[in-house]
Amino acid sequence: MEAPKINDGTTKAGDWRTYQRVLLPPVRDLHQIEVYEQHGGYSALRAVLNDGKFDPQGLGAHVKESGLRGRGGAAFNTGMKWSFMPPVDPDVPRFLCCNGDESEPGTFKDRQLFEYNPHLVIEGMVLGNFAITAKACYIYIRGEYASWIDHFQRAVDEAYAKGYIGENILGSGFSTDIVVHKGAGAYICGEETSLMESLEGKRGYPRVKPPFPAQKGIWGRPTTINNVETLACVPLIVNHGAEWFSSMGAERHPGPLLYGIAGHINKPGVYEFPTGMLISDLIDEVCGGMRGGKKFKALVPGGSSTPVLTAEQCVGATMDSDSLREAGSMLGTAGMLVMDEDTDMVAFLRRITHFYHHESCGQCTPCREGTGWLEKLVTRIDEGEGNMRDLDLLLDLCDQIEGRTICALADAAAWPVRWTIRRFRHEFEAKCKPAVFAGADLQGDGASGQLVPVV
Amino acid sequence: MDSPSPKPLYVPGQVPERRFSDEELVWTAEEQQRIDGWVAQYPTSDGAVMKVLWLAQEKFAWLPAEVIKFVAETLGLPYAKVFGVATFYTQYYKQEMGTWVLDVCTCFACQLCGGYDMLHYLEDQLGITKGETTEDGMFSIQEVECLGACGSAPMLQVTNGPYIHNLTAAKCDTLLAGLRAGKVPAFESVTLPQDEDDLGGNRRSDAEAVEAYQTPPVSETIE
Q1: For residue A207, what is the DSSP state?
Q2: Which residues is A136 bridged to in the sheet?
Q3: pLDDT digits (tens, 9 = 90+) for B167-207
Q4: Is pTM beyond 0.80 here?
Q5: Are the C-beta atoms of A449 and A440 separated by less than 8 Å?
Q6: N or C: which end of chain B has fewer CB within 10 A?
Q7: Rounded distance, CA B172 to CA B163, Å?
Q8: Phi and psi (nearest 5°) for B101?
């Protein structure tokens, strides 16, 4: 029996046209702590720490119940992730890491949170620390975001001054710290184990799992790593309740979501809507249609590593993990890249393979060498020097790379190559030299060829 | 697309030429205090190494071998370890750069919106190609990977600092003229399209707003 089709063209975001934003509400100067407090800021923290709304386990269970799934790409249930932490041992410090590396091409949502609503992130981090009884939260922000690191550090300083972070927070006896860590330009540090290595002041080489971070994380201590947007959702869940959260958006992937939309559209930028928005609604209505009235051709739904979708595949698909899996891709970070009919998919893929070759850390041979070969082959095809067999060689290379390395960067490098070739093979073939031998019968009339039998 | 690999800092058997003397390689009391604060943030002093390398780069403009050694000594770490960190991350300069480093993003979102046009325009204006520095030591151009500003593509970053969004040829000219006059670009706050109705487009009263979606298409063709 065939399972019922998910992508039937109905939006799962409910009445999104009247949606009231919660992650980036329309409040001027919300980045200032006074303004944030006036609009109900830090009330979730007070409710938990002062009024005893939740104990740590209760908060974790509530977040689990809400169905919040990680916004960094893997879409794992956040409450579940917290529950993997071992039982509290007073002699062993535990840590929370907030992953603000955000280097995935096409993703630029966390930057808006740092710029416009940093205190929501801070409140979420303190609540996260409380839920897993962490000694400190290290937030890793990519070095390129120098201006936003300054903004965020200022917000952290303000929160310290007001007693929302530090010793004995709000007189509850709970103490925790937040440390802002500045990266220095490495895509790989968005991978959780690599991020931990980088925090420890090493080269960002991913670690072999297991042991998982919950057992052995930074400095060998139990650690949980969450995305910026994930933690920003936690105070909202405490304030409004798990039912409110789980009733918003797609059933199995609920909550508000920041859609970073870029490319050939009229109004690119970060939009906040519930999950499960129809792709066609996002492009045609929210973003004001394609730039210059061109035809929509292809979409990368969630950052460069998610497989590219053709316009046909996007029909009826919504932005949540189940729907996009059926369509043939992944939600990833919801950093969408929209391409119009003039886009050259070979040149596009060439740039992606260049990115992965540049960013491969070089620890595992299949990735270090393989990404280089991917780039060389795609470049060769793009320059018109490629052969038809290069396409199969590329697909074979993807088979050789995928799943054979420590971290997922190699998979992320192979997927766009595999799926762009599968879905736009005709464009690649058009740039390749024809697969014929000298003297072939190109007219197909059986007479124009110069076939000489080899004896 | 291949950029030349940076020159090796050491050639075996050769002592590298020093760029900074021992007298220059000292922290001021205020800097030392900041370093002590960073060391206290981590269980071991290793954690602070990236922050101290950033400070060293701000102070000395780039990281020759003796500066890396100086950082290692400051934190009591082996030279090799700090050298390893400094060479892993792309934002630490391992060779001398221009006063202003223009990191032009050409990753796929910027590529589709004309990032290469901007890169080539800047290259033409300055008479250098990416990876090079102008003769007067004023500008360097680098082609960089995604800087996380895809909604306001094409864009660039000035010396690991401010972002310049929605580049056009005219905006590049203004930028170059401003930098020649020694003016550091101000922080630009990119408007959220959804704020247009509610807040008139600008939600931060302390920064200049930039409307991302008013940029006309820069490029008709895509490289």
Answers
A1: P
A2: A95, A177
A3: 989 999 999 999 999 999 999 999 899 998 888 888 888 88
A4: yes
A5: yes
A6: N
A7: 12
A8: -105, 120
B221: which chain A residues are within 8 Å (Cβ-Cβ)? Answer: 342
Q: Does residue B83 belong to the interface with chain A, where contact is any CB pair within 8 Å?
A: no
A268 near B CB under 8 A: yes
Tell me the ipTM for this assembly: 0.92
Is the CB of residue A155 less than 8 Å away from at least one CB of chain B? no
Convert B137-165 to b/e letters by CB count within 10 Å (16 or more is b): eebbbbbbbbbbbbbbbbbbbbbbbbbbb
Any residues with CB less than 8 A from the CB of A272 and at least 6 apart, and which? A19, A21, A22, A23, A24, A256, A257, A258, A259, B194
A341 contact partners, CB below 8 Å, separation of at least 6 = A294, A295, A296, A297
Interatomic CA distance for residues B77 and B198, integer angstroms: 53
**Which chain A residues have a beta carbon less than 8 Å from that of B157?**
144
Question: Chain A contact for B40, CB < 8 A?
Answer: no
Angle between helices A409-423 and A365-382 (to 10 degrees): 30
> Are A157 and A164 contacting, i.e. CB atoms less than 8 angstroms apart?
no
Packed helices B65-75 and B79-88: angle between N→C axes, nearest 10 degrees = 120
**Measured between alpha carbons, how far is B33 from A128 in angstroms, rounded to an integer?**
30
From chain B, pick out residues whose CB is under 8 angstroms from the CB of A267.
193, 212-213
Q: For residue B194, report the phi and psi dihedrals to the nearest 5 degrees.
A: -70, -20
Q: Is A192 in the B-facing interface, judged by CB distances under 8 Å?
A: no
* Other C-beta atoms lying within 10 Å of the C-beta of residue A16: 19
B192 contacts on A by Cβ (under 8 Å): 24, 112, 116, 269-271
CA-wise closest residue to A276 among A5, A10, A63, A4:
A10
Chains A and B form CB pairs within 8 A to the count of: 209
Place of tokens 């602070």: B48
Residue B114 near residue B154 (C-beta atoms within 8 A): yes
* pLDDT tens by residue, B69-117: 999 999 999 999 999 999 999 999 999 999 999 999 999 999 998 899 9
Contact A185 B41 (CB under 8 A): no
Query: A241: number of CA atoms within 13 Å, CB side?
Result: 3
The residue whose two tokens read 């369509």 is A327
Q: If DSSP codes are grouped into helix, strand and coil, which group holds residue A429?
A: helix
Q: Best interface-test mutation with B: which of A32, A140, A144, A189 has the largest number of B CBs within 10 A?
A: A144
Whether A201 and B146 lie within 8 Å, measured CB to CB: no
